[in-house]
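DM from R.C. (forwarded with permission)

"hey, sorry to bug you on a friday — could you get me a structure for this? deadline for the figure draft is monday and I only need the backbone to look sensible"
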Amino acid sequence: MHINQKFTTYDRDNDISGSYNCADHNGGWWYTSCVHANLNGLFFNESVKNYRSMHWKDFDALRRVKMLIRPKIDEVLI
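My reply, with the result:
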């Protein structure tokens, strides 16, 4: 899970991997494990297993993604 995970960038390695920076896989993210999600990756015309591809878990070769963010319930101002 990525809950409460700090954002990882090229210059701020906050992922849980001790051997490399997950942001080197084409962009920043709330990484815990690089291999499960990369919405900033490259598009490949075929289904490939590549850490630089745009993917989400087992869905490979995504053409596009849309990320929607909403506040937590207790943060909504009434």
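R.C.: lifesaver. DSSP finds no helices and two strands in the chain.
me: no worries. Strands lie at 37-38, 55-56.
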